[in-house]
Predict the 3D structure of the following.
Amino acid sequence: MKLKMDHKLFDRLRSDEDQRKLVDKLREIGLDQYVELPQIAVMGDTSSGKSSLLSAISGVSFPSADQLTTRCPTQLILTNADTFRGNVRLVRFQVDNESSTGENLFDTGEDKEALTCLGDVPGAITKLTKKLVDEGQYISDDQIVVEMSGPELPNLTLTDLPGLVRTVGDHEDENIIPRVRNMVNRYMSQERTIIIAVVPANVDMHNTEILQAAQEADPNGTRTIAVVTKVDLVDAGAEQAVHDLLLNKKKKMHLGYHAVKCRSQRELTKGTTIEKGISNEIAFFGKHEYWRRLPTELWGVLELSGRLVTILQDNIRRSLPKVISEINARLAVAQKEVSRIGVPLESLGAQRQQLGKWDQRLYEELDKLRQRALRSRLEEAFPPANAHGLVSLTDVARTLGGVSVGQFTLSSVDREALEMEIALQAYLDVASHRFVDVVPMKLNGMILCSFFREMESEFLSITTDKKVGELLQESDGEAARRQHLLDRINTLEKAKCVIESSVPMPAPFY
């Protein structure tokens, strides 16, 4: 059943949070392999303060040891709830050249670990990260998914990407640099991805690699928000330029800028808690000569969380109708392609059916050849002017006209008999010529029919059991292609069921 493409369909969801949960369910079943889903991705250089920002938003102290910095995408699914519960799991990745996003994430269920409190998260992430490193994946496309519900958490889903790097250590693979860039570009290029570009305030922000990449992927700046970190490290005298940037006066972007001051490395070393860090941030912006003049909605982690929730909700609201449309379109294409490929030739019935099709096709092709050959001989025997091959009245009249009966005077009965005799003689003269032409042609037709029967017999004689087996042997590529399409259809059908079960139907009228 085709999902109705109705822009008011999702108005029946009880809240924006229901829409976010729906998107998370669609992502969980793997729909993002084939259809882009709305999301928020956090990107920046390795030293941009990205991890501290995510820690402040989620309440989780992410691993910061040099050997265990972010090495793969980490998705955070946060939900506000009365009590805490959560889990961490690993989602494997493989390249899919036929998908719209170029990616294929599938949940193997391995390494799924339940969480009892926020304090369990760092250890679980470290364990999975170490597993990837032990596998030789210094940078991995596999994804760690952290799903948490708790009283201090916002209703927000976002994905943290490995930081862009310019140099590698002595014993590290140089391919890390292009691999991270390719990963970041893959996320940036998706039109339904909101880009959080994290840039430190103590560098030339206009020339940072992450902002340049974001501008290439999002030239109009409609889906990029720049989060400016480390504002406490801005050089004296440079504050006004940063202040104007935060007010979106320079390098304008539709979603604008936001300033934060997360825990510094010194505070992390001292063991400053996330809560204390947020308290210090509020005090800093409230007292600073320049930053206190900023509108309150443009600074602070708490305000940023609220902005991101709104941005994600708007993105989901705009994208869901298009997602439904793409599900229907891609499902129709996949079903048509599977129908063209046909069923696997594994069962005896399928093999008989295929042999029957080949036999019918062979007969039809041979019959076409036979008809073409006969038509060619007919055209040679009967040129277009008289191709009908029949005795025409014109021919008879011409023959009659050439007959003279002299000056005899006959009775009416004799005259009629003579005229009939002459007419019959004329008809026989013309018909005999036609018959002489037809007889060789008939013989040629019989010879052609005999030739094609012999050719058909010889063709069938070579179709031994071995040959038939070879013909019925399906290529690995064809079988893999069918299985890929069946997997795609299965996922798209699941997505339809998830949507239909998530969207309440209107009450019937009685």
